[in-house]
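Intended use. Records like the one below are meant for learning the mapping from a protein sequence to its folded structure. Do not use them to infer anything beyond what is encoded.
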Amino acid sequence: MKTSDMHYLKKAGFGFSACAAILLSSCETPFYIHTQVNPDLSVRRTCYSDSSLIPEQTPPRLRMDFSQPNPVHVKHLETDSLIGFYGESIPVNMKINTDYARIEDAKPFFRSVPPDGNPMFEPKEQLGKRFKWFYTYYTYHGTIRQIEGLPVPLSDFLSAEEQSVFFGNAPLPQGWIGVESYEYLDELNTKFVQWYNKSLFETNFAILYSLADTSLRKRMLADKDIIYNQLKSNEIGNNDELADFCREWDARWKKDETTSLYRTREAEADSLYQEKTKIIRYFSYVFVYRMDLPGKIVESNALRFEEGHPVWKVDGYRLLISNLQMQATSRKANIWAFIASFILLIGIPILCLKRKKRKARPTAL
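Structure written out for the chain above:
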Protein backbone atom coordinates (compact mmCIF):
# COMPACT_ATOMS: atom_id res chain seq x y z
CA MET A 1 0.00 0.00 0.00
CA LYS A 2 1.27 3.45 -0.87
CA THR A 3 2.17 5.87 1.92
CA SER A 4 -0.41 8.37 0.69
CA ASP A 5 -3.12 5.70 0.83
CA MET A 6 -2.20 4.71 4.38
CA HIS A 7 -2.14 8.37 5.41
CA TYR A 8 -5.62 8.80 4.00
CA LEU A 9 -6.97 5.76 5.81
CA LYS A 10 -5.51 6.85 9.14
CA LYS A 11 -6.73 10.41 8.88
CA ALA A 12 -10.25 9.68 7.67
CA GLY A 13 -13.04 9.59 10.21
CA PHE A 14 -14.00 6.10 8.99
CA GLY A 15 -12.78 3.49 6.61
CA PHE A 16 -15.76 1.93 5.04
CA SER A 17 -16.20 2.18 1.32
CA ALA A 18 -15.78 0.12 -1.77
CA CYS A 19 -12.55 2.00 -2.50
CA ALA A 20 -11.34 1.69 1.06
CA ALA A 21 -12.10 -2.02 0.90
CA ILE A 22 -9.68 -2.40 -1.99
CA LEU A 23 -6.99 -0.54 -0.08
CA LEU A 24 -7.55 -2.44 3.15
CA SER A 25 -7.64 -5.83 1.49
CA SER A 26 -3.95 -5.47 0.69
CA CYS A 27 -3.00 -5.12 4.36
CA GLU A 28 -5.48 -7.39 6.16
CA THR A 29 -4.21 -9.64 8.93
CA PRO A 30 -5.81 -13.10 8.59
CA PHE A 31 -6.76 -15.33 11.50
CA TYR A 32 -7.93 -18.90 10.88
CA ILE A 33 -9.69 -20.23 13.99
CA HIS A 34 -10.18 -24.02 14.02
CA THR A 35 -12.28 -25.42 16.87
CA GLN A 36 -12.56 -29.16 17.51
CA VAL A 37 -15.36 -30.18 19.87
CA ASN A 38 -15.16 -33.39 21.88
CA PRO A 39 -18.23 -35.46 22.86
CA ASP A 40 -18.04 -34.07 26.42
CA LEU A 41 -18.15 -30.50 24.95
CA SER A 42 -14.54 -29.76 25.84
CA VAL A 43 -12.74 -28.09 22.94
CA ARG A 44 -9.35 -27.65 21.38
CA ARG A 45 -8.92 -24.31 19.62
CA THR A 46 -6.16 -23.64 17.11
CA CYS A 47 -5.29 -20.31 15.50
CA TYR A 48 -3.21 -19.95 12.34
CA SER A 49 -1.89 -16.57 11.26
CA ASP A 50 1.00 -14.70 9.69
CA SER A 51 2.93 -12.83 12.37
CA SER A 52 4.54 -10.57 9.76
CA LEU A 53 1.10 -9.05 9.04
CA ILE A 54 0.16 -8.34 12.65
CA PRO A 55 0.22 -4.54 12.83
CA GLU A 56 2.65 -2.80 15.17
CA GLN A 57 1.00 0.61 15.27
CA THR A 58 1.31 2.63 18.47
CA PRO A 59 -1.19 2.73 20.02
CA PRO A 60 -2.67 0.16 20.10
CA ARG A 61 -0.53 -2.88 19.59
CA LEU A 62 -1.91 -6.36 19.02
CA ARG A 63 -0.47 -8.64 21.66
CA MET A 64 -0.74 -12.38 22.24
CA ASP A 65 -2.79 -13.20 25.35
CA PHE A 66 -1.31 -16.02 27.42
CA SER A 67 -3.82 -15.59 30.26
CA GLN A 68 -5.73 -18.71 29.20
CA PRO A 69 -7.17 -21.41 31.52
CA ASN A 70 -4.68 -23.97 30.13
CA PRO A 71 -1.17 -23.71 28.66
CA VAL A 72 -0.89 -22.06 25.26
CA HIS A 73 1.31 -23.80 22.70
CA VAL A 74 2.95 -21.68 20.01
CA LYS A 75 4.63 -23.27 17.00
CA HIS A 76 6.46 -21.45 14.20
CA LEU A 77 5.72 -23.04 10.84
CA GLU A 78 7.80 -23.33 7.70
CA THR A 79 7.83 -20.22 5.56
CA ASP A 80 5.99 -21.97 2.72
CA SER A 81 3.12 -23.26 4.90
CA LEU A 82 -0.30 -22.59 3.39
CA ILE A 83 -3.84 -22.89 4.71
CA GLY A 84 -7.18 -22.81 2.94
CA PHE A 85 -8.75 -19.47 3.77
CA TYR A 86 -12.34 -19.40 2.56
CA GLY A 87 -11.59 -20.50 -0.96
CA GLU A 88 -8.02 -19.26 -1.30
CA SER A 89 -4.67 -20.45 -0.01
CA ILE A 90 -2.74 -18.01 2.15
CA PRO A 91 0.70 -18.30 3.77
CA VAL A 92 0.87 -18.75 7.56
CA ASN A 93 3.91 -18.95 9.80
CA MET A 94 2.37 -19.36 13.24
CA LYS A 95 0.17 -21.96 14.94
CA ILE A 96 -1.30 -21.41 18.42
CA ASN A 97 -3.51 -23.84 20.32
CA THR A 98 -4.92 -24.58 23.73
CA ASP A 99 -7.70 -26.59 25.36
CA TYR A 100 -10.84 -25.52 27.20
CA ALA A 101 -13.18 -27.49 29.44
CA ARG A 102 -16.02 -25.60 27.76
CA ILE A 103 -16.20 -23.10 24.93
CA GLU A 104 -17.66 -20.40 27.18
CA ASP A 105 -14.21 -20.22 28.85
CA ALA A 106 -12.46 -19.50 25.54
CA LYS A 107 -10.58 -16.22 25.26
CA PRO A 108 -9.09 -14.57 22.15
CA PHE A 109 -5.46 -15.44 21.48
CA PHE A 110 -4.78 -11.77 20.75
CA ARG A 111 -5.89 -8.49 22.31
CA SER A 112 -5.33 -4.83 21.59
CA VAL A 113 -3.35 -2.74 24.07
CA PRO A 114 -5.05 -0.51 24.99
CA PRO A 115 -8.41 -2.19 24.25
CA ASP A 116 -10.19 -0.75 21.21
CA GLY A 117 -13.49 -2.68 21.38
CA ASN A 118 -13.06 -4.62 18.13
CA PRO A 119 -16.06 -7.00 18.13
CA MET A 120 -14.21 -9.58 16.01
CA PHE A 121 -12.00 -10.35 19.01
CA GLU A 122 -15.01 -10.74 21.33
CA PRO A 123 -17.29 -13.52 19.99
CA LYS A 124 -19.99 -14.91 22.26
CA GLU A 125 -20.17 -18.69 21.86
CA GLN A 126 -22.22 -21.57 23.24
CA LEU A 127 -22.25 -25.33 22.80
CA GLY A 128 -25.15 -27.65 23.61
CA LYS A 129 -25.82 -31.39 23.69
CA ARG A 130 -29.13 -33.32 23.47
CA PHE A 131 -29.55 -37.09 23.86
CA LYS A 132 -32.28 -38.80 21.78
CA TRP A 133 -31.58 -42.54 22.21
CA PHE A 134 -30.31 -43.44 18.75
CA TYR A 135 -28.53 -40.11 18.25
CA THR A 136 -26.85 -37.38 20.24
CA TYR A 137 -27.25 -33.87 18.83
CA TYR A 138 -24.59 -31.18 19.26
CA THR A 139 -25.35 -27.50 18.68
CA TYR A 140 -23.09 -24.50 18.25
CA HIS A 141 -24.15 -20.85 18.35
CA GLY A 142 -21.73 -17.96 17.98
CA THR A 143 -22.50 -14.25 17.80
CA ILE A 144 -20.18 -11.42 16.78
CA ARG A 145 -21.82 -8.10 17.48
CA GLN A 146 -22.47 -5.36 14.97
CA ILE A 147 -20.09 -2.40 14.74
CA GLU A 148 -21.65 0.48 16.61
CA GLY A 149 -21.04 4.22 16.74
CA LEU A 150 -21.38 5.11 13.06
CA PRO A 151 -21.63 8.92 12.72
CA VAL A 152 -24.31 8.65 10.04
CA PRO A 153 -26.82 5.76 9.86
CA LEU A 154 -26.50 3.69 6.70
CA SER A 155 -30.28 3.85 6.41
CA ASP A 156 -29.97 7.55 5.50
CA PHE A 157 -28.60 6.47 2.11
CA LEU A 158 -29.37 2.75 1.67
CA SER A 159 -32.66 1.03 2.41
CA ALA A 160 -32.68 -2.21 4.41
CA GLU A 161 -33.13 -4.19 1.18
CA GLU A 162 -30.29 -2.35 -0.55
CA GLN A 163 -28.00 -2.92 2.43
CA SER A 164 -28.73 -6.65 2.34
CA VAL A 165 -27.85 -6.86 -1.35
CA PHE A 166 -24.78 -4.61 -1.10
CA PHE A 167 -23.25 -6.54 1.82
CA GLY A 168 -24.05 -9.97 0.42
CA ASN A 169 -26.90 -10.98 2.74
CA ALA A 170 -29.45 -11.18 -0.09
CA PRO A 171 -29.24 -12.09 -3.78
CA LEU A 172 -29.94 -9.80 -6.70
CA PRO A 173 -33.49 -10.00 -8.09
CA GLN A 174 -33.98 -13.08 -10.25
CA GLY A 175 -34.28 -12.67 -13.98
CA TRP A 176 -32.00 -9.65 -14.29
CA ILE A 177 -29.45 -9.61 -17.09
CA GLY A 178 -25.87 -8.49 -16.55
CA VAL A 179 -26.43 -4.86 -17.54
CA GLU A 180 -29.34 -4.48 -15.13
CA SER A 181 -27.38 -6.04 -12.27
CA TYR A 182 -24.37 -3.83 -13.01
CA GLU A 183 -26.45 -0.64 -13.08
CA TYR A 184 -28.19 -1.56 -9.83
CA LEU A 185 -24.94 -2.35 -8.03
CA ASP A 186 -23.35 0.81 -9.43
CA GLU A 187 -26.25 2.82 -8.00
CA LEU A 188 -25.80 1.16 -4.60
CA ASN A 189 -22.08 1.84 -4.70
CA THR A 190 -22.75 5.53 -5.44
CA LYS A 191 -25.09 5.73 -2.45
CA PHE A 192 -22.50 4.01 -0.29
CA VAL A 193 -19.83 6.51 -1.33
CA GLN A 194 -22.23 9.34 -0.52
CA TRP A 195 -22.79 7.83 2.92
CA TYR A 196 -19.06 7.51 3.44
CA ASN A 197 -18.41 11.13 2.48
CA LYS A 198 -21.24 12.37 4.70
CA SER A 199 -19.81 10.32 7.58
CA LEU A 200 -16.38 11.76 6.90
CA PHE A 201 -17.82 15.28 6.81
CA GLU A 202 -19.69 14.82 10.10
CA THR A 203 -16.60 13.39 11.78
CA ASN A 204 -14.37 16.27 10.71
CA PHE A 205 -17.07 18.79 11.55
CA ALA A 206 -17.48 17.36 15.07
CA ILE A 207 -13.73 17.58 15.71
CA LEU A 208 -13.40 21.14 14.43
CA TYR A 209 -16.58 22.21 16.22
CA SER A 210 -15.28 20.87 19.55
CA LEU A 211 -12.17 23.06 19.22
CA ALA A 212 -14.02 26.25 18.23
CA ASP A 213 -15.24 29.03 20.50
CA THR A 214 -18.89 30.09 20.74
CA SER A 215 -18.68 32.66 17.95
CA LEU A 216 -17.03 30.29 15.50
CA ARG A 217 -19.48 27.52 16.35
CA LYS A 218 -22.42 29.73 15.43
CA ARG A 219 -20.94 30.52 12.03
CA MET A 220 -20.06 26.88 11.44
CA LEU A 221 -23.64 25.80 12.12
CA ALA A 222 -24.96 28.55 9.84
CA ASP A 223 -22.72 27.51 6.92
CA LYS A 224 -22.61 23.75 7.51
CA ASP A 225 -25.03 22.80 4.75
CA ILE A 226 -23.37 25.20 2.30
CA ILE A 227 -19.94 23.65 2.85
CA TYR A 228 -21.32 20.11 2.56
CA ASN A 229 -23.27 20.80 -0.62
CA GLN A 230 -20.28 22.34 -2.39
CA LEU A 231 -18.28 19.14 -1.93
CA LYS A 232 -18.55 16.46 -4.60
CA SER A 233 -20.46 13.78 -2.71
CA ASN A 234 -19.95 11.12 -5.40
CA GLU A 235 -16.15 11.25 -5.24
CA ILE A 236 -14.64 9.21 -2.45
CA GLY A 237 -12.71 10.92 0.32
CA ASN A 238 -13.24 14.61 -0.38
CA ASN A 239 -11.17 16.65 2.09
CA ASP A 240 -10.31 13.55 4.05
CA GLU A 241 -7.68 15.32 6.15
CA LEU A 242 -8.71 17.90 8.70
CA ALA A 243 -6.26 20.44 7.25
CA ASP A 244 -8.04 20.20 3.87
CA PHE A 245 -11.39 20.43 5.63
CA CYS A 246 -10.29 23.64 7.34
CA ARG A 247 -9.28 25.18 4.02
CA GLU A 248 -12.86 24.73 2.76
CA TRP A 249 -14.11 26.91 5.60
CA ASP A 250 -11.31 29.44 5.15
CA ALA A 251 -12.20 29.75 1.47
CA ARG A 252 -15.83 30.35 2.39
CA TRP A 253 -14.97 33.05 4.94
CA LYS A 254 -11.93 34.38 3.03
CA LYS A 255 -9.66 34.26 6.05
CA ASP A 256 -7.26 31.75 7.60
CA GLU A 257 -9.37 31.23 10.73
CA THR A 258 -10.07 27.49 11.00
CA THR A 259 -6.59 26.50 9.80
CA SER A 260 -5.07 28.72 12.46
CA LEU A 261 -7.32 27.08 15.06
CA TYR A 262 -6.25 23.63 13.95
CA ARG A 263 -2.55 24.50 14.12
CA THR A 264 -2.96 26.01 17.58
CA ARG A 265 -4.82 22.96 18.93
CA GLU A 266 -3.05 20.32 16.85
CA ALA A 267 -2.15 18.02 19.76
CA GLU A 268 -5.75 17.93 20.94
CA ALA A 269 -7.02 17.45 17.40
CA ASP A 270 -4.64 14.53 16.86
CA SER A 271 -5.90 12.93 20.07
CA LEU A 272 -9.45 13.21 18.81
CA TYR A 273 -8.39 11.70 15.50
CA GLN A 274 -6.87 8.75 17.31
CA GLU A 275 -10.12 8.07 19.13
CA LYS A 276 -12.40 8.57 16.15
CA THR A 277 -10.31 6.50 13.75
CA LYS A 278 -10.23 3.39 15.94
CA ILE A 279 -13.07 1.86 13.92
CA ILE A 280 -10.91 1.83 10.82
CA ARG A 281 -8.56 -0.64 12.52
CA TYR A 282 -11.39 -3.15 12.67
CA PHE A 283 -11.12 -3.48 8.91
CA SER A 284 -7.47 -4.50 9.16
CA TYR A 285 -8.45 -7.99 10.34
CA VAL A 286 -10.32 -10.86 8.74
CA PHE A 287 -11.28 -14.10 10.49
CA VAL A 288 -12.29 -17.53 9.27
CA TYR A 289 -14.00 -19.75 11.85
CA ARG A 290 -14.18 -23.50 11.32
CA MET A 291 -16.26 -25.58 13.74
CA ASP A 292 -15.74 -29.36 13.95
CA LEU A 293 -18.67 -30.85 15.87
CA PRO A 294 -18.90 -34.57 16.70
CA GLY A 295 -20.74 -36.61 14.11
CA LYS A 296 -22.21 -35.28 10.88
CA ILE A 297 -23.54 -31.77 10.28
CA VAL A 298 -27.31 -31.82 9.71
CA GLU A 299 -28.02 -28.08 9.81
CA SER A 300 -25.99 -24.88 9.55
CA ASN A 301 -26.25 -21.30 8.30
CA ALA A 302 -22.68 -21.45 6.96
CA LEU A 303 -22.25 -20.77 3.25
CA ARG A 304 -19.07 -22.79 2.97
CA PHE A 305 -17.89 -26.17 4.27
CA GLU A 306 -14.44 -27.74 4.58
CA GLU A 307 -14.29 -31.52 4.86
CA GLY A 308 -17.95 -31.46 5.85
CA HIS A 309 -17.44 -28.87 8.60
CA PRO A 310 -19.04 -25.38 8.53
CA VAL A 311 -16.84 -22.34 7.92
CA TRP A 312 -17.72 -18.66 8.38
CA LYS A 313 -15.85 -15.58 7.22
CA VAL A 314 -15.91 -12.53 9.49
CA ASP A 315 -14.72 -9.02 8.64
CA GLY A 316 -15.71 -5.46 9.38
CA TYR A 317 -17.93 -5.10 6.32
CA ARG A 318 -20.11 -8.03 7.36
CA LEU A 319 -20.64 -6.33 10.72
CA LEU A 320 -21.80 -2.96 9.44
CA ILE A 321 -25.53 -3.71 9.36
CA SER A 322 -26.16 -6.49 11.90
CA ASN A 323 -24.69 -9.03 14.27
CA LEU A 324 -23.10 -12.01 12.56
CA GLN A 325 -24.60 -15.32 13.63
CA MET A 326 -22.79 -18.66 13.34
CA GLN A 327 -25.01 -21.70 13.86
CA ALA A 328 -24.55 -25.43 13.34
CA THR A 329 -26.09 -28.70 14.50
CA SER A 330 -24.53 -32.15 14.18
CA ARG A 331 -25.79 -35.65 14.86
CA LYS A 332 -23.74 -38.56 16.13
CA ALA A 333 -25.07 -42.11 16.18
CA ASN A 334 -25.13 -43.89 19.53
CA ILE A 335 -23.87 -47.33 18.46
CA TRP A 336 -24.67 -48.86 21.81
CA ALA A 337 -28.30 -47.72 21.45
CA PHE A 338 -28.60 -49.52 18.11
CA ILE A 339 -27.05 -52.67 19.62
CA ALA A 340 -29.29 -52.48 22.67
CA SER A 341 -32.34 -51.95 20.50
CA PHE A 342 -31.38 -54.88 18.28
CA ILE A 343 -30.94 -57.13 21.31
CA LEU A 344 -34.30 -56.04 22.69
CA LEU A 345 -36.05 -56.49 19.34
CA ILE A 346 -34.60 -59.98 18.86
CA GLY A 347 -34.38 -61.03 22.48
CA ILE A 348 -37.90 -60.20 23.63
CA PRO A 349 -39.64 -62.34 20.95
CA ILE A 350 -37.23 -65.20 21.69
CA LEU A 351 -37.96 -65.00 25.42
CA CYS A 352 -41.69 -64.86 24.75
CA LEU A 353 -41.44 -67.87 22.43
CA LYS A 354 -39.50 -69.88 25.02
CA ARG A 355 -42.00 -68.97 27.69
CA LYS A 356 -44.86 -70.04 25.41
CA LYS A 357 -43.17 -73.37 24.71
CA ARG A 358 -42.69 -74.00 28.42
CA LYS A 359 -46.39 -73.38 29.02
CA ALA A 360 -47.35 -75.71 26.14
CA ARG A 361 -45.12 -78.61 27.40
CA PRO A 362 -47.23 -81.57 28.88
CA THR A 363 -47.12 -81.89 32.66
CA ALA A 364 -45.44 -85.16 33.82
CA LEU A 365 -47.71 -87.71 35.63
